[in-house]
Write a structure and sequence with these properties.
Blueprint (H helix, E strand, L loop, with lengths): L1 H24 L16 H12 L9 E5 L4 E4 L4 E12 L4 E3 L4 E3 L10 E3 L6 E13 L2 E3 L1
Antiparallel strand pairs: 1-7, 2-7, 2-8, 3-6, 3-7, 4-5, 4-6
Amino acid sequence: MRKKIAGILILLLAGTGIFRFGMIAGAASQEPGSAGDPLITQSYLEQRLREVSGGNSGQNGFQKVNISKGKSLYLNEGTECIIYSGGATVLGNMGFINATSGTLAKKSSSAKLYHQYISPSNASGMKVTANSIIYVKGSYSMD
């Protein structure tokens, strides 16, 4: 019986010693969310992103743009688009970055439905070959 009590006492003392060592090392003394404990919540991250971007990051999404056959859509550098319906041909010497397939859509190639395209320059555009719905995120112009 004494051996059992002595064994339990030794385990308790060892556990307490390990816990105290952890506290001294700083594992339990950091303020949550500080540099020492970088775990954060999603709401905190979204709030910080809004502060840094200077606005509400949730309302700067894609805009629905209806374009008639024969019209052209020109996207500024960094602007994204997705062709939802219709069809279009790529304009401009630099083409578009097809983010969906990870390839370059070259000039005069046909743009694919439901693929996300990113404009690498202000000279990139699309000539609409059928009445189309294109979702655009960023600045653009039409003619």
